[in-house]
Amino acid sequence: MLHCGKHRSPVNTHLEPDADVTLITSTAPVATPTHGGRAKCLQRLVRLDLPVPRTVALSFGTVHGIAAGHMPEIGKILCQFAPNALLCVRPSSEDPDWGGPGAILNIGMNDAACAALADRIGGTAAQALYTKFVHSYAVHVARLDPDVFEDIEADGAEGLAESLSTYEEEAEEPFPTDPAVQLTEVLRSMARAWEGTTARLLRQAKGAPVDAGLGLVVQEMALGLGRGECGSGVLQLVNSDTGLPQITGRYLSQSQGREALEAGPKSLYLERDPRGPSLEELAPEAFAELKRQAALMRERLREEMQIEFTIENGAVHILDGVRVARSPRAALRIAVELARDGIITPQEAVMRVEPRALSELLHRQIAPDAERDVIGSGVAASPGAATGRIVFSASEAQASAARGEACVLVRRETSPEDVRGMHAASAVLTERGGITSHAAVIGRGLGLPCVVGAARMRFQIRRKVLVGEKGRTFREGDVITVDGTTGQVLKGAPKMTEATLDDAFTTLMSWADAERDIGIRANADTPADAATARNFAAQGIGLCRTEHMFFETERLTPMREMIFADAPDDRKAALAVLLPMQRADFTELFRIMEGMPVCIRLFDPPLHEFLPTDRAGLRDLAEALDLPISDVTRRVEAMGEYNPMLGMRGVRLGITVPEIYDMQARAIFEATLDASKDGAPVVPEIMLPLVSAKREVELVRTRIDAVAAAVRNERGRDFTYRLGVMVETPRACLRADEIAQHAHFLSFGTNDLTQMTYGLSRDDAGRFMSEYVSQGVFAEDPFHILDTEGVGELLRIGVARGREGRPDMTMSICGEHAGNAESIAFCRACGLDYVSCSPFRVPVARLAAAQLAIRDKIG
Ligand code: PEP
Ligand code: MG
Question: Alpha carbon 785 to chain centroid distance?
């Protein structure tokens, strides 16, 4: 048998330079986009002169060809290795997170190889290795039933013989002993597995493009078997959950004497440990070398790496180096520490953190002292906690999101058709599945609190009923909380605490802010939202939806009285009740924001949301108004609209019932003076919704100016304010030049603009959106990802015409798209001054915006 040692010659002696397969040398043409990350990384390890076994890389094109039946000449691969060498084949996708088929080890094993190996490591160990190979080949390559091999109890020569005969029975042909046949079949099976539908959907869920390629590497085995200290393991220098320094991994020692060798590997600690023997004690030099090599890789590959190694008679072999698997928290810490150590620049650290991954760090958790009314539990699959109304289908989740209502998506289990619904939901709860189930994987990817496998609850999806573990029944629309950190499901909305942001987060965000060239504000309607916005360093409030301030019972009744009032005096009386409430709301917002801009949008209600719908509501209102119930019912019917979203909404209400906006303007101005007394001077921004004509702005502006003058007079103090217009109708985009002449700023409301551009109801689109996207009618749900072609065209027109009308115009976007990285790129390219998104998306937007600026700088 030829020596199976390392061949680190940089010269490719057997292959044509343009061959489909490439021996990995320090100069070979190997690149991540063509051969995958593992192949490229192995080349880097070769360049670092680390003891890497000889390896051949197959490109994406070659592997794709193999799946289609075009096998490269197998002799060209085999001749790169010593005759009788045992080989392994590992996947090498462009991004390691996209996965790939499992590695197949010990290819080339047959009676002759087994006998040769027995001389080195003993007969039983060699036969065990052979048996393992037969099982793995049978299951993963020949695709035979795993159960029949698991049932084989005998070991040694008997176990091997039984495995070989079982193979022959099941496959109806003898086990292939020719290494060329084995390698051919392994390559074919791995190439085909990558092209399968399940594998494709799984990697697409992790962000892989449809046509993502797979490379394969064929490597000589360094067995880690022998008579001195031998074994195999993995080692990394940081903790994968926290990113903090900590040597972690595992080591399986084969060499605790011949008996242990034959009985199988023994798990040892890596570092010295009082609980048992460690690699550090058994092979201190190998352990020190491993640490040194990991540190060298960190420095030279500019990445925190996990090394896969074997130790053969005390000597270290590096089989592979992969990016350390990491939680989002660890990813951030690792990037920051690499930059702090001068290995990468702060800019690079900013580029390395996926904006969406931040959301896991940012999620609220249930407060430690909150009362927990637990109704069930399952696997804690994605951290953070969220509250919402129960929905039982993805389309209901989308409809709920379009209404701006938080929901919890409850499913038996999820499938790719549910992904859009998961995007729309605040949390996900499933009956089936474990930590790697579809719901769990996608949930973590989205940073969505997720509990899976809550099998002791009953999920009656068709009847829209969820039954808790103790039999309590919950229906669609009931509020529950999913705690993805503990795996509990709770009734109602327990008290939450904000995410704790550590020093690494703060540091990274400060680096990001230094690069960013577009402002980020938050949409915040409540003091809690405003506090979150401050916590996440939003540069102000870009949208405060005032109608959201009226849904509490003690406000809803005076609001309804005001809407129903026939006589001006009755209306005045109702508004007088509402004024101090609004003043207090605004004063608190101004105080929390401490002089930062606060943009308050005047009332924009679809009126039906404020009308009672059931008998009890009608009776309550009749009592409050002191009217017969029949009168109230008639009025409610008379006020009903066929299409409330396009009816008496926004500025239309402000024009027809101007006292409402007068009251709000007064509340804003009085709050401005109150909050300015003991803090930084406040310059409120007042925004008009659903404008479509310049005259609307003129009329409302005149009245607001009059209210401002009256408050100045009464209080004897001066203040200024800025008036803005929400551009959310196509006409407002087209007429932005003349509208701009009456406004200080324009803010694009892309939720309504999308609705009106497509003629697509925000509330009903969920019913067919999945179908539309799956049939490719829309590339994406346009309420989720801004349609840059149609809606975007209107936005571009609006920006250009608005600036024609008023060159110093401040322009922004406050629709849901504002928190989405792709949409931010578009808004930035259009020249918007800031984006305003929900508070929890502020850090995501800050990071995404910084990455855009850096990308531009580095070209
Ligand atoms: C919008 O339409 O984009 C918007 C921000 O307003 P709302 O969602 O409240 O209609
Ligand atoms: Mg709107």
Answer: 15
What is the β-pairing status of strands 379-382 and 450-452?
antiparallel
Tens digit of each residue's pLDDT (9 = 90 or more) over 333-372: 999 999 999 999 999 999 999 987 786 677 777 887 789 9
The structure's pTM equals 0.75
- Indicate the residue type of 89: V
Q: Which residue of 726, 733, 786, 813 sits with most ligand 1 atoms within 8 Å of its CB, as the best mutation to test the pocket?
A: 726
Closest CA to ligand 1's atom 8: 751
Active-site annotation holder among 114, 814, 827, 837: 814
User: Which residue, by CA, sits nearest to atom 9 of ligand 1?
Assistant: 545
Instruction: Assess whether 88 carries a catalytic annotation.
Output: no
Whether the CB-CB separation of 241 and 329 falls below 8 Å is answered with yes
- State the closest ligand 1 atom to the C-alpha of 404, by its place in the atom list counted from 1: 8
Q: How far, in Å, is the centroid of ligand 1 from the Cα of 751? A: 5
By most ligand atoms within 8 Å of CB, the mutation choice from 525, 529, 751 for ligand 1 is 751
Both tokens of 218, joined, read 């064929």
Please indicate whether residue 64 is annotated as part of the active site. no
Residue with tokens 């390896």: 55
CA 427 – CA 390 distance, rounded (Å): 10
Distance (Å, rounded) from C-alpha 577 to C-alpha 572?
9
Q: Taking the C-alpha atoms of 429, 432, 438 and 441 in order, what is their torsion angle to the nearest 10 degrees?
A: 60
Alpha-carbon separation of residue 26 from 11, 34, 50, 132, 803 (angstroms) = 9, 16, 11, 33, 56
pLDDT confidence tier of residue 6, bands split at 50, 70 and 90: very low
Phi, psi for 576 (deg, rounded to 5): -65, -30
Q: How many residues would you count in the chain?
A: 859
Which pLDDT score, from 0 to 100, does residue 123 have? 84
Catalytic residue from among 438, 742, 784, 817: 438
Instruction: Tell me the mean pLDDT in the region 35-40.
Output: 93
Q: Which ligand is nearest to the CA of 823?
A: 1
Helix (H, G, I), strand (E, B) or coil at 53: coil
State yes or no: pLDDT of 447 exceeds 70.
Answer: no
* Candidate from 95-99, 139-143, 257-261, 339-343 with smallest mean pLDDT: 257-261
Q: Which residues contact 600 (CB under 8 A, 6 or more apart)?
A: 544, 546, 586, 589, 664, 668, 684, 685, 686, 687
What is the mean predicted confidence (pLDDT) over 388-417? Answer: 90
Ligand number nearest to the C-alpha of 753? 1
Sheet of 465-467, strand order? 458-460, 465-467, 473-475
For residue 155, the model assigns a pLDDT of: 79
Helix/strand/coil (H/E/C) assignment for every residue in 46-105: HHCCCCCCCEEEECHHHHHHHHCCCCCCHHHHHCCCCCCCCEEEEEEECCHHHCCCCCEE
Instruction: Tell me the ligand closest to 763's alpha carbon.
Output: 1
Owner of token pair 């958790």: 365
Residues 822-831: pLDDT tens digits? Answer: 899 999 999 9
CA of 842 to the centre of ligand 2 (A): 20
| Pairwise CA distance, residues 226 & 122, whole Å | 9
Average pLDDT over residues 696-715: 98
In contact, 290 and 14? CB cutoff 8 Å: no
Distance from the CA of 726 to the center of ligand 2, in angstroms? 8
206-247 pLDDT per residue, tens: 888 988 999 999 999 887 776 678 888 999 999 987 899 999
C-alpha 605: how far from its chain's center? 32
**Binding pocket residue ranges, ligand 1, CB within 6 Å:** 543, 545, 604, 728, 749-752, 814-815
Q: How far apart are CA 822 and CA 394, in angstroms?
A: 23
Pick from 754, 543, 556, 782: which is nearest to 645 by CA?
754
**What is the residue with the minimal CA distance to atom 3 of ligand 1?**
749
pLDDT at 768: 80
The phi-psi region of residue 309 (left if phi > 0; otherwise alpha if psi is between -120 and 50; otherwise beta) is beta
Residue 534 tokens, joined: 């401050």
User: Cα of 90 to ligand 1 centre, how many Å?
Assistant: 50
- C-alpha 27 to ligand 2 mean position (Å): 58
